[in-house]
Queue: 4 jobs
Job 1
Amino acid sequence: MSTNLKLKGNWNELKGKLKAKYGELTDDDLVYTEGQEDQLLGKLQKKTGETKENLEKILFSE
C-alpha cells in the first residue's frame, strides 16, 4: 500500500495519536492534503522537534 493511501485511509486516527503525543499540535498543523506528505512532515518536524524518520515511523508504520 502506498504511503499516500495509508495516510488517506487512517488520517483521523493518526491525527488523534499525534495530538495525544504532541499536545502542542493544532488542527491547523494537521491539515493533510493528498500528495503533500513532505510539506506535512516538514511542518510536524518544525512544530515537534522530532526527526523526519521518527515522524515517518509514527505515520507510516501502523
Note: The CA atoms of residues 21 and 34 lie 23 Å apart.
Job 2
Amino acid sequence: MREILIRQKQVLFFIIAGGLSAIVEIGSFKVFSTYLPQFLSREMNFHGIHYPLSNIFSTCCGIITNYFLSIWFVFERGKHSKRREFAYFMMVSFVSTLLSLGFFQVFYSFIFKDNIDLRVYTLSPEMISKIAAILLVSILNYSVKKKVIFNG
C-alpha cells in the first residue's frame, strides 16, 4: 500500500514538474519564435524545418528546468553518480528533443493549420504543435527516466 502511495505521489510530482518545465519551454518558444525570425529570416522555414532554433533553444530551457525539478522533487537518486546520472538524463533528453522536433514538424506541417481562439488568448498553429509534441514526448520521458536513470 505504501509503495502505491509513493508511486502516485511520484507521478503527481512528475506531472507538476513536467507542467512547470512545459511552461518554461512554451514560454521561451514564444519568445524565441517571435524574436529570432527578426534576426534570422530563415528561422521560420529552414529547408522545410519550421522554427528549428526556437525549438532547440526552448527545449533546452525546458530540459534544464526539468532536470532540476526531477532531482529536487520527483525522483530519488539512483545507483549512478551525479555525473553519470546527469549524462544519462541529457542523453535521454537529446533523444526526446529529436522526437519532439519531429512531432512538432508533423503537427505544424500537416495537422494544426488554424488558430484556436480561447477568448483570452489565441493559440497559433506553432504553439499548438509545440504543446502537442511536449505532451506526446512526456509519456516516454517519465518511463525512461524512472526505469533507466533513477532506477525506480
Note: The CA atoms of residues 46 and 129 lie 17 Å apart.
Job 3
Amino acid sequence: MRRAVCPGSFDPITNGHLDIIERASKLYDVVHVAVAVNRNKQGMFTIEERIALIEEVTAPYGNIVVESHLGLLVDFCRDRGIPAIVKGLRAVSDFDYELQMAQMNHGLTGVETLFVPTSPTYSFLSSTLVKEVASYGGDVSHLLPEVVHRRLVERIAERKAQQ
C-alpha cells in the first residue's frame, strides 16, 4: 500500500491545501493529513476543530486519514510506516526552506519529500493571509471550502463579540 503524508497547520484549511491533498490522493492509496500541534501558538481553530473540518472537506476523496502530530514529522512517518511527504510549493521562496527540510528529513530517517507545484490559482494563498483579510471583512469565500468559510466568519464574529 502506497502511503504519504501532507503536513501543515491548516488553520484553516484552504482551497490551496485541498488542491495538494486531492492531487496526492490520486497518487497514493492512503494520504495522512498531519495537523501540526504548536503549543506556542493560539490558533484561530483548535486542533480538534481543524481535524473535523479537514475530515469533512476531504471525505469525498475516500482515502484520507486526518491526525494531529506533535514533534518531528519524521517520527510521525516512522511510527506509521509512511515513506513519503507531499508538500505544495507556491513560490521559489518556499523551495529554499522546503528543500532544507526535505534534506534534513531524508538524512534523519530516509523519508522522501515530493514537491508538488501549487495551482497558479492558489499560488498566493496562505491561511494567515486568509485570516487577516477575513478579519477586516474581506471576501475570502472563493479561497475556502464553503463549510470552512462559514466557520471562519463565525469565529471572527465570536472573537469580535468578546472584545
Note: The first helix runs from residue 15 to 27.
Job 4
Amino acid sequence: MEKSDHDADTNSNPPKFALPVDSEHKATVFRLFSVAAPHMRAFHLSWVSFFCCFVSTFAAPPLIPIIRDNLNLTSTDIGNAGIASVSGAVFARITMGTACDLFGPRLASASLILLTAPAVFFTAIANSPVSFLMVRFFTGFSLATFVSTQFWMSSLFSARVVGTANGVSGGWGNLGGGATQLIMPLVFSVIRDIGAVKFTAWRIAFFIPALMQTLSAFAVFFLGQDLPDGNFSQLKKSGKKHKDNFSQVFHYAVTNYRGWILALTYGYCFGVELTIDNIIAQYFYDRFNVNLHTAGIIAASFGLANIFSRPAGGMISDIVAKRYGMRGRLWALWIAQTLGGLFCIMLGRVGSLSVSVTVMVIFSVFVQAACGLTFGVVPFVSRRSLGIISGMTGGGGNVGAVLTQVIFFRGSRFKMETGITLMGIMMVCCTLPMAFIYFPQWGGMFCGPSSKAATEEDYYMSEWSSSEKEKGFHQASLKFADNSRSERGRRVGSETTPADQTPSTYV
C-alpha cells in the first residue's frame, strides 16, 4: 500500500523531540529527571495525579481508630467501607480504558479526578456508617486513573523501555498508599494541637487530600499531551488520527484471552496490595498493641516500598526482554508473584513484631514488583485495544481486592492473621494460569514461537479488517509491530531491519 501524503511529509520533515524516538515518535529512552515535553512531562503528570488519588482513597484507614469511635463503626462497617473503596474502581477502570481509547488519557484522567474530588471533601461531613461507606466508595473511583497512567506511558514510550515507564509511573503513584499513612496522622495531629477536638480534627484533615487531587486534575488537563504528535481531538480534526469503531475495539479486547489471564493474576498482586493498604495499620494496632502513630509508620513502609519495588519490576521486565524476549517477561512475572505469595503466607504465621515488619517489607517488594512486571506484558497484548486491555487488567486488580476482603477480612469469620495467610495461598494459586499465555510470534513460558513462522505483523494486523486496511487505519499498528521485534529477545539481532523503517529523531 502506498504511503499517504501526510506520511511522506512526516518522514521528510520529522518533528523534533528532546528524547530519541522510534517510528511512532515514542521515546526509546527513559530519563527520570527530565521534564521534557511531551514524553517526560506526561510521565510526571501521570504519576503525581495517580499519587494524589491514592492518598485520597486510603486517607481513612490510618485514622480508623478515631473515625470508628466518632461514627460508632463496627468491624463489619469498617470491612464494608474498605471493600467499597476498591469496588467502585472495578468498572471505572474498564470504562477508563474505553475512554482512553476513544478520547485520550489526558481528558479521561482529568475528568475522573475532578468528578471524584467532591467525595473526598464530603468525607468531612460523614455522620454515619452508611455515609462513610458512600464517600469511600465514590472516592475509590479515582483509582481508575491508574489505567490512564499506564495507557499514557504505553502511548509515549517504545517497547524497549515501556516496562520501565509503566513501572515507575505506577509505582510512584502507588506511593500514595504509603504516604497517606504518614500524611493523615501528621495532619490530624497538627490540627488537633492547634486546638480542634479530635472528632473535628480528622474531618478537617480530609481537605488536604481533596485539594491535592483537585489541583492535579488541572495540571493534567492544561499541561499534558495525549500522544507524541498532539492530543486526540487535534489529531482527529487534522485527519492524522482516525476515529476508531468502539464495537471493534471492544471486540478485540474481550476476545483476547491473554487479557483475561492478566486480569486474574493482577487481581492477586495489585489486589493484594490494595487489601494490605486497607488492613495493615489496623492489623499492627490491634495484634501488637502499638500506638496509632507507630502503626501508621509500619503501614507506610509497605506502601512506600513502591518508590523502588514496582519500578524495579518494570525495569527487570525490560532487562530480561533484551535477552529472553517476551518469554523472559512472563517468567520474571511468575517468579516475583509466587515469591510474594509465599512471603504473604509467612506474614500471617509469624507472631513477633520485629519479624512481622521484616517479612512485610520483603513481601511488599515482591508483590509490588509483580505489579510492575505485569504492565511490562500488557502493552503487547493488543495495539488497537490497549486501553480496554489495560482497563481489564487494572479492574482485575480491584476485583481481586474486593473478593479477598469479602472472603477473609469482612466481619469476624477469620482472624486477620489467618486471612493474610489464606490470601498468600490464593496468590500462589492464581499466578499459575500465567503458563497459558502464549504469543505465536514470541512463545510462552514453556513453548517457543510458532513453527508457522508467525510475525509481529501477523499478530497485530489480525485486529484490522481488509476494508480498514485499505483505508490505512492499520498503519499505527504496523509501526508498533515493527518496533516490537525486540520482544524476540536475542533472536532479534539476526533479523533484518525493514528498509522503510523511520529513523530515530533527535533535537
Note: Strands lie at 438-439, 443-444.
